[in-house]
Specification:
By secondary structure, the protein is α+β, with helices and mostly antiparallel strands. It has one domain: Clavaminate synthase-like (Double-stranded beta-helix, 4-Layer Sandwich). The chain is built from 6 helices and 16 strands. The strands form 4 sheets. Strands 1, 2, 3, 4, 5, 6, 14 and 16 form an 8-stranded mixed beta sheet that branches. A 3-stranded antiparallel beta sheet has the order 13-7-15. A hairpin with a 6-residue loop joins strand 1 and strand 2. The structure holds 2-oxoglutaric acid and fe (ii) ion. The site of fe (ii) ion has 4 residues, from loops.
């Protein structure tokens, strides 16, 4: 029997009593509804081959290979490997791999004209301590904005690119680093729930369109400070066999990035969009 248990006060739910390899449509509908409501869904205790993970992931949308080609699975480009090849040929820790996702709160794929709908991870190896993933609600961030900021942001677009103002493009091949920036409304209405969210990513935004540079930078700093509402948070402590999917249209996340580097922390990861490339 499928059971849904809430994890955080506003986001996060855990699904019990399922094997995603043999999930019928009615049970999947329960998971999908819980995902729209709680934004982050954990399905623990799964034993999956790559094809099982891909088949289950495709029930949420269309998988797109990630632009970081060097971290794709060699035989399955739709799969990104997290925590693999952490040490370079010289034996030194590669910070771009070890600290991937840990540089700050973000949403995945804001650099694309059609941002990622979802990201889904499957845990193959977990460290003895650290390595959590933290989540927070964009709905909570929007709702907590003072009215004058909601008014000021209404109809405004942000300009986003891979690597943002810091040009953090270490995971891209040299020939892919010349990214064409894209525009998204900062107050974004979720296409399925109709709820408003503060769609924002300080590591990918270049500017807020239509403002002078100084004003845009000041507003970016102000929004950075307003992303996280404590009651909108959920922190995931990984267990081997966990699947976690998050909704990039209404949640932020970051990796804690604090586990012993000599230990393994390995995930399969897929980026899911609504449509075909
Ligand atoms: O490894 C993690 O905890 C999350 C990394 C991340 O930001 C991502 O996969 O999008
Ligand atoms: Fe991420």
């Amino acid at each position: 029997m499928i059971r849904v248990q809430r994890l955080g006060p506003q986001i996060g739910a855990e699904i019990r009593g399922v094997d995603v390899k043999t999930l019928d449509d009615a049970s999947f509908a329960v998971i999908y509804r819980a995902w729209l409501e709680y934004n982050v869904v954990v399905v623990p205790g799964q034993e999956l081959a790559i094809e099982d993970f891909l088949r289950y992931s495709r029930r949420f949308g269309v998988i797109h290979p990630h632009p970081s080609k060097s971290t794709r699975h060699p035989d399955h480009p739709e799969i990104t490997l997290l925590g693999v090849n952490k040490f370079g040929p010289d034996g030194r820790l590669d910070a771009a791999i070890y600290r991937r996702g840990a540089e700050g709160w973000h949403t995945d794929g804001a650099y694309d004209a059609e941002p990622f709908k979802a990201t889904q991870l499957y845990a193959l190896a977990v460290p003895s301590r650290g390595g959590d993933t933290l989540f927070a609600s964009m709905y909570a961030a929007y709702e907590a904005l003072p009215q004058h900021l909601k008014n000021r942001l209404d109809g405004r677009k942000g300009v986003f690119t891979y690597g943002g103002r810091r040009k953090a493009t270490a995971l891209l091949n040299a020939e892919d680093r010349d990214w064409v920036p894209v525009r998204h409304p900062i107050i974004r209405t979720h296409p399925e729930t109709g709820r408003k969210a503060l769609y924002f990513d300080p590591g990918k935004i270049l500017e807020i369109e239509g403002l002078e540079e100084e004003e845009s930078d000041a507003l970016i700093d102000e929004l950075t400070g307003r992303m996280i509402q404590p009651e909108g948070e959920y922190r995931h402590r990984w267990r081997k066999g966990d699947i976690v999917i998050w909704d990039n249209r209404c949640s932020y996340h970051k990796a804690a990035g604090d586990y012993p580097p000599e230990e393994d922390r390995v995930h399969w990861r897929v980026s899911i969009k609504e449509r075909q490339p």
